[in-house]
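pasting input
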Amino acid sequence: MRVLLVDDETEFVSTLAERLSLRGIDVDYATGVDDALAIASRKEYDLAVLDMKMPGASGLELKKQLAEKYPAMKFIFLTGHGSENDYLLGSSGSEYYLVKPINIDLLVSKMKEALARYGGSNV
Amino acid sequence: MKLLNQLKPAFLKDQHGHHGPLPQSINFRRIWKLALLLTSIVTLLPLIVITSVDYQFTQKSIASENLLRTLRIGSNAKRAVSHFLHERFAALSLVAGSYSYDYLRQPENLAAILRNLNSSFGDFIDLGLLNRRGVQTSYIGPYQLSDKDYSSEECFEEVTGQGYFVSEAFLGLRNIPHVVVSVRQSQSGGSFFVLRTALETNLFSTLLGSFELDGRGDMFLINRQGIIQTPTLYHGNVFDRVSFKVPEYSVHTEIAEAFNDAGEPILICSAYIPESPFILIIVKSKNELMKPWRTARLKLIGFLVASISIILLALLGFSTYMVNIMYRLDQRRLSILHEMEYSNKLASIGRLAAGVAHEINNPLAIINEKAGLIKDLFTYTKTYAEDSRIVGLVDSILSSVERCGTITKRLLGFARHMDSQIESVNLGKIINEVLGFLHKEAEFRAITIEQKFDPAVPRFQSDRGKLQQIFLNIINNAFAAMDVGGHLEVVLSYDRGETVTARITDNGCGMTESALTRIYEPFYSTKTKAGGTGLGLSITYGLVQELGGKIQVTSKLGEGTSFTVSLPLQPQQPREE
């Protein structure tokens, strides 16, 4: 599973990337939209975990651009603006989104679930 | 008392109530007073002026009518007395002119003439013939007056001088008041004789008594010195002097006002009887004359007082009604303004909470990840995996982060639902969220919460934010009413129809019946000292109405309160009540 993490909070995204790496996930991270597009062009990713709110563009806009270029890519959104019940709303939609601060185990399980549901590879 | 209470303006009642009214932007007391004053002036002034004018006019009319009537009677009586005397003169003159001295000197002739006179006119007591020297040469009558010499008496001098004479009343030999009427008849050669007769003054009394007098009226004759000549009813005996001043001479009948001995106002009508020493007098008591006026006046004043009372009552009622409408509209306006202000405040708090929660979430996420990484490193590298103390510390950090995360998520959830939005809601879940906010307080105060949720309650279309606020307000109030160790019961039921019902029952202090009737009024609060705004239940009521629901409350002082909120499964138009 190749995962691209995108969040403007460097401290957060770098630490999360390291934790996912410890769990055997091939993960790269970007701290901005342009950075993310550049990294995505260099390597094929199964899944992108995007922050909903970033300077310059929202997670949804970035998702749109990435989805156009890489139709097979799956997405999970992170937000600092959600409430408890948003887990459920996220689960019932076409994409997942999790509320910060996140539970790493929940994130990993949602990643797997997303790839399994929409047909990912190397889960 | 009920009527008086209804006439009392609402703003005055509110001032004396348990709760203060909303701060008034308009001085209703002033408007009420001004309306009452102006309408009273406009309506009462003409009434008072007209009544006052009518009062004066009627009083003057009655007084004037009394004067005129008295004058008329006086004038008629004067003519009657004058005519009476004139008749007697004429009769005597006719006899004197028709017969010679010698003929009249014969007693049988004189007696026949007296009989004729009495049969034609009546009232002649006697008849006497005086020669030019004043000696009564012949006499027919009840006394022995033949050969009586009158030459030195005033009456003889007067009659020889002016040809006729009417004496004042005197007692004479008969000791009965009477007057003497004499005429002089000239004869050829410069000689003359005098024919005289006596008339009883009772004749005048009978004549005057035929006039009807009102106002305790008294009609009699006096002479020019004020000596009473005929009997009176109230003003003394014959030959007494009258108590008032003798009226000045006038050819006309006159009337004047004076006071009697008792100081009471009287009317004196006077008429000098021509060719006689008599003055006709009519005396009337003004108080008696004005009696009908006093009765009319009493009725007039009664009518005025009754009219003023009715008008004032009507004006008071009208002013109070109008100002009450204005006052209630103003209160409603202020209430809406306050409600809006309160909603805006809540929305601001919501936005602030959302901002704070979001800003805290990011550093929390970093702490979460850093602590997570530490734990991962310990776990994956095995270096400190066995050191339960360090792993425990990291777990403690992670658990605290999770707790903070829960709080910020709730804040965000609360803030999001400030906006009005109809969506599919799970009422049980919403009530649980509200109870979640108060969970710590319940623990701290040992309040037990019993939830009886009917699993059949369906999801339904409603406004999540409004429902949250409704139940937060009701449950907050229940908490405020309960002491330590209280019990709160929340029952959620579904009637399998169109309504979902939530009942929240506490065993707190309860409410009085009077408080119960006012709990939905804005700014009515029993917790003013504890910081209650008095808006909670007012807003709650408004919100339930907006959702098309119903709210009911039952309460017993000292036992507790129960709120029942019934909500429709489909959003409805707000109830108009």
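fyi The two ends of chain A are 6 Å apart (CA to CA).
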